[in-house]
Design goal:
351 residues; alpha/beta; TIM Barrel; eight-stranded parallel sheet; 8 strands; 10% strand
Length: 351
């Protein structure tokens, strides 16, 4: 008989899912309009041209559950024994939109809607602020509103913003606001920009199967290798999907980065105060969203430290209760499970 999953500390810990998505109807409508007009990049066309219009059982389920911030979502959490969900506006947020007034308005109204949901379910939902990185100064102000007025616990940036990355100078107001206000920065994937995507769409590999992780790990490495964490030592970066593979590759990244610095081959790469290992263990947290793999989770704990790895499901894109049962049964200590499922997230997000 399959064990019933229950909330409330079934095995001596609460389960906090830290990368769970929602959408608003006007966000989806705006993205689909860009797709219809031929103005969206290839990754967005592939992702939302499918999820926004396909009549399949999977896409219908996902659209319905993305738009729900009520009973359906809570029912799904109960079915999986999830006590709390950290919610963020689904990828690509408003980052593919060209009209700044529209993008800012959609993000702000999504934040207001999420605040209402968190007030209706104060013991179940935790919010992350949606911003409009196309306008970094406005985004910094919205981050302050998110933390001080709405009570949100972090911010989600859906990786590149029209092919641009957070290490670029124009985005410094966002990084500075996150560091100054102690707001965890969750970088979530979207499809690679047109300059990177190459033949991935034709190969069926541009999305969550590969392209997401490739593009988002590239984004994270740009932050790690360009002195961002030397400028902002308190900045907290969160990456999903097994920390987008960085812990597996960190030894090679560190060796080759330092070789590149010594060679003076790349003008942008300068000596850092610490190794890349240091930043990974000091400034970065990883979640297992979409990666219910005990072996991968153990690797993250070994490389990053057991205090820096958090549970996530990736609802509604991935909704498999048996994955929770698998992770409950992981061959790690009870103390490590408490950290993984509950207390690491509580400390990181201040919940």
């Amino acid at each position: 008989m399959t064990t019933e999953l229950k909330t409330g500390g079934q095995y001596g810990y609460l389960r906090i899912a830290t990368e769970e998505a929602f959408a608003t109807a006007e966000q989806i409508d705006a993205i689909l309009r860009l797709v219809a007009e031929g103005r969206a990049d290839k990754g967005t066309v592939s992702l939302w041209g499918f999820y926004g219009t396909s009549p399949s059982e999977r896409t219908t389920f996902i659209r319905e559950r993305l738009l729900d911030l009520g009973e359906l979502r809570v029912q799904a959490m109960d079915e999986c024994g999830i006590d709390k969900a950290v919610l963020a506006l689904t990828s690509p947020g408003v980052q593919s939109l060209f009209d700044l007034d529209e993008a800012r308005g959609i993000a702000a109204r999504a934040n207001d809607r999420l605040k209402d949901a968190c007030e209706r379910y104060p013991t179940r939902f935790v919010g992350m602020t949606a911003v409009c990185p196309q306008d970094p100064e406005w985004s910094a102000q919205e981050l302050r509103r998110g933390k001080e007025e709405l009570g949100f616990a972090g911010v989600q940036i859906n990786s590149h913003t029209q092919g641009h990355y957070l290490d670029e100078e124009q985005f410094d107001p966002i990084l500075r606001a996150c560091a100054d206000m102690d707001i965890p920065l969750y970088i979530h994937p979207q499809g690679p920009p047109d300059g990177m995507i190459g033949g991935m769409v034709e190969a069926g590999l541009e999305g969550a199967v590969f392209g997401f992780a490739m593009e988002t790990s590239y984004h994270a490495l740009r932050l790690l290798t360009t002195g961002v964490f030397d400028r902002y030592p308190s900045l907290k970066l969160v990456l999903g999907h097994g920390c987008e593979g960085l812990p597996f590759w960190i030894d090679r990244f560190n060796y080759m980065f330092n070789a590149g610095v010594r060679s003076q081959r790349y003008p942008r790469l300068k000596p850092l105060r610490h190794s890349l290992h240091h930043y990974l263990r000091t400034n970065v947290w990883g979640t297992n969203s979409g990666l219910p793999s005990p072996a991968s989770i153990k690797l993250l704990m070994e490389v990053m430290g057991e205090d820096r790895v958090c549970y996530a499901m990736d609802y509604p894109y991935q909704f498999v209760p048996d994955e929770v049962r698998l992770l409950d049964a992981m061959d790690i200590s009870h103390e490590q499970k408490v950290k993984f499922f509950q207390t690491n997230a509580e400390k990181l997000f201040g919940i």
